[in-house]
Amino acid sequence: MTTTLVTGATRGLGKETARQLVEAGHTVWIGARNAEQGEAVAAEIGARSVQLDVTDDASVAAAFAQVDADGGLDVLVNNAGIAMWGLNGPDALRVFDTNAVGIVRTTEAALPILRRSANPLVVNISSALGSFTAVHDPESAASTVQAAVYGASKSAVTMLTVQYARMAPEVHFVALEPGYTATELGGMPNPHGRPVEVSAATVVAAASAGPEGPTGVLLEDGRPLGW
């Protein structure tokens, strides 16, 4: 049985990813800033719940201590993320703290546990908006969106994936562009993206790839995305 923790899993892509992972046979932990919301989602989809705020060191440490005490961890899906569109210091700090520094917090807390797994894996949700290749490609949806701070934070996510793959080669690390998806990232409903079920399936595929999958790469729909 594979045990997987998904951060930011009370709605949108994270919730659907968790639901599909349960369906695929994983034991799933819902990582949620709001404990009550996490418990409700866990009850709804047949998962477990742990209070986890990726911007709070104490919360992260406590969450992974609980997961470790309850049997350990095989897969970490770093899904938690925010989008803020203002070009100012406070908004930029908040975006980077959640999207990039949050991954450092959770990964550092998870690594000692993951190293005891037979098939340890970390999946980081990145974005084509952080890819030079995609942003400069007129055929890519990323070339039509102005998201300076969010895109830069996702470039950081991808580089963190590459560097962790080098620093901890015993663990597989994969960054994903999950697809242009109809969610409410940044507080704005997006009716134009593809169904969240489709994008979540790509995350589930990466989280289920095992040791044969690639490491230190950025993928989109299972294929390498230049960045």
* Helicity, as a percent range: 40-55%
Structural class: alpha/beta
Shape: globular
- How many DSSP E strands? 8
What pattern of helices and strands is seen along the backbone?
EHEHEHEHEHHEHEE
Largest sheet: 8 strands, mixed
For the record, what is the CATH homologous superfamily label?
A: NAD(P)-binding Rossmann-like Domain
CATH first level: which class? Answer: Alpha Beta
Tell me what portion of residues adopts beta-strand conformation. 15-25%
Low-pLDDT stretches: none
Distance between the amino and carboxyl termini: 34 Å
What spatial order of strands do you see in the largest sheet?
3-2-1-4-5-6-7-8
- CATH architecture term: 3-Layer(aba) Sandwich
Mean pLDDT: 93
Q: CATH topology, what is it called? A: Rossmann fold
The number of helical elements comes to: 7
Q: Gyration radius, to the nearest Å? A: 16 Å
Number of domains: 1
Question: How is this structure best described in words?
Answer:
By secondary structure, the chain is an alpha/beta fold. It has a single domain (3-224), classed as Rossmann fold (3-Layer(aba) Sandwich), CATH 3.40.50. Helix content is 43%, strand content 16%. It has helices spanning 12-23, 35-45, 57-69, 89-114, 132-135, 148-167, 196-207; strands spanning 3-7, 27-32, 48-51, 75-78, 121-125, 172-177, 217-220, 223-224. Strands 3-2-1-4-5-6-7-8 form an eight-stranded mixed β-sheet, sandwiched between helices. Strand 6, helix 7 (196-207) and strand 7 form a beta-alpha-beta unit. Helix 1 packs across helix 7 (196-207), helix 3 (57-69) packs parallel to helix 4 (89-114) and helix 4 (89-114) packs parallel to helix 6 (148-167). The chain is globular and about 45 Å long.
